């Protein structure tokens, strides 16, 4: 009985020590993961800023006009028309809105 | 004899041991009992570190969630001059990476100090290049920096945040309490090498980020407004300009552009005066655009009908010893034509028919002389003189848009009330507040200020204002396929030297809404101080209105309100 009690005591002491050591080990692990998280968050924020800056309307417009040779439609070239519901009914019954480019040339698309 | 000597040695040894043990016990009692408190505190200081942490400043996004302002952690570089062997060599190596002159770096690194800032809030790429150098005696700490990824876009509305992350202007300043991240003190435990192990209390959590603001602004509409405004100001060689686009039904601001613009990312090189949002702070004499409000008041009060005939005095009339001119010598004309031809004499007669008290009451009801309460800092009130001081000349002048100061936001809000069947709405730029996780905390509902005129009067004024664009002074504001209602304005400005109206300094403007029968946009365009003395609201501001309006309506997929046949739309078919 005495031996059993002593063994139990020793086990408890070992368990306590093991728990403390493991807490420190997990603490280091948490800190390492936190640092990794911070690095990843910084990368995410950097990418968000970069994405936002690259998708700015003025940049897109500049690239479209200067690099791709596109141009903005002139006044009157884009007209919104509503097709009659009886001719082309949309799914929800509302008149479909069609965008029509005035100087649209079908041959260019072919 | 030998045994007594041996006993003596044993006793001596025992005595030495007891003395030693006593000393140890004494030291133990001193450390553990007498100095326990002080030593425990010292140990705490050595292996515990209390740090003040602040959550990152909240993000600002447009109505579609596009990022307009956000925080990012970036490197700041410091030096420890006392540990450097060769400050000159280190300075040379650093100068290839840091945006600091070699002389300045060397001077800083030669100081007899243990800490010196070398460069703060660098770009992340510069930080990475610095890491690759791995220099002794040079350290890096991460600090939050505000980024405005769209550059100058919407700069006057967003405002700026300072070096320490505090809002200084615009939305950044007005919504500081929402945007600012939570501040918290945290106790961390350190090991023998100074590494952080974990927070003292496992229940400790990191400080919370500031809230996210969702604006009513649409980035694309803002871009269109800024692009067209900048082109017009530059072409007219004007001093400045502004454009505001509102949703007349809700009062939500879709775009607010001010020229000249500035880049909030380059705060250090900015002049403070340049940050001012002239679209809400600066009062100007509106000129003829005010005639729309006078017409609304006269129609509502029954002082005039659209068909009432008004004599134009052949372009010249004297009121209280002041001669009023019209640019067109007219005889009899209908009240609708008074507005469409922008007759000063007709407007003066309308104002006098209304009388000072009634005119003042409507000016007040339309929101002039008081703040619109838009959620931006520094809004001006304009200037409406006390009606008790008005004589006949003042009534005539105010009816023509002189002797009164209004801000662009007041004027566009008043026109939005005409578009909104007579109901004045409160303009606003922030529509939602969300937490860092994106959960909705607060939604800003459109706010009705008051009904100014009846829907019938609003419709009558709209018809008259449509005439301004179809066959009046504002034909250049026309947008193909849409009915536009609006009014031109060309107002002389007071010469600060002579205190009289200048013949060469004036403000040109166009205010209106489209489509006239179901308005989606109310817009004001102001071009201040064009070089050409013959320029007018009709020739300068109206084309900008048309250009912005057409692009925005197309972007919003608003269908034309006039019948268009396919043959018209596609002549090549």
Shape of chain B: elongated
Helix content of chain A: 55-70%
What is the radius of gyration of chain A computed over CA atoms, rounded to a whole number of angstroms? Answer: 35 Å
Count up the helices of chain B: 19
Mean pLDDT of chain A comes to 78
The portion of residues forming beta strands of chain B comes to: 15-25%
Structural class designation of chain A: mainly alpha
Count the strands of chain A? 2
Per the CATH scheme, the topology name of the domain at 219-555 in chain B is Beta-lactamase
Q: What is the terminal-to-terminal distance of chain B?
A: 139 Å
Q: Can you name the CATH architecture of the domain at 219-555 in chain B?
A: 3-Layer(aba) Sandwich
- What is the terminal-to-terminal distance of chain A? 96 Å
Write a structural description.
The complex is a heterodimer of chains A (110) and B (573). With 110 residues, chain A is mostly helical. Helices cover 62% and strands 9% of the residues of chain A. Chain A has three helices and two strands; from the N terminus they run ααββα. Chain A is rod-shaped. Chain B has a domain at 219-555: DD-peptidase/beta-lactamase superfamily (Beta-lactamase, 3-Layer(aba) Sandwich). Chain B has helices at 2-34, 36-47, 87-95, 102-109, 124-133, 155-158, 170-174, 176-179, 219-236, 278-281, 291-301, 335-340, 344-354, 356-365, 392-399, 408-419, 455-471, 537-555, 566-569, and strands at residues 48-54, 60-61, 67-79, 116-119, 138-147, 183-190, 196-199, 212-215, 240-246, 253-259, 309-311, 316-319, 322-325, 332-334, 423-425, 430-434, 440-443, 448-451, 485-494, 501-514, 521-528. Chain B is α+β, with helices and mostly antiparallel strands and 573 residues long. Chain B starts with a helix and ends with a helix. In chain B, strands 2, 3, 4, 5, 8, 16 and 17 form a seven-stranded mixed sheet that branches. In chain B, strands 10-9-21-20-19 form a five-stranded antiparallel sheet, sandwiched between helices. Chain B is elongated, with a radius of gyration of 35 Å. The A-B interface holds A 24, 26-28, 30-31, 38, 41-42, 45-46, 48-53, 55-58, 61, 72-73, 75-76, 78-82, 97, 99-105 and B 66-68, 70-73, 124, 142, 147, 149-151, 153, 189, 195-198, 219-220, 223, 227, 479-481, 546-547, 550-551, 553-554, 557-560, 564, 566, 568-572.
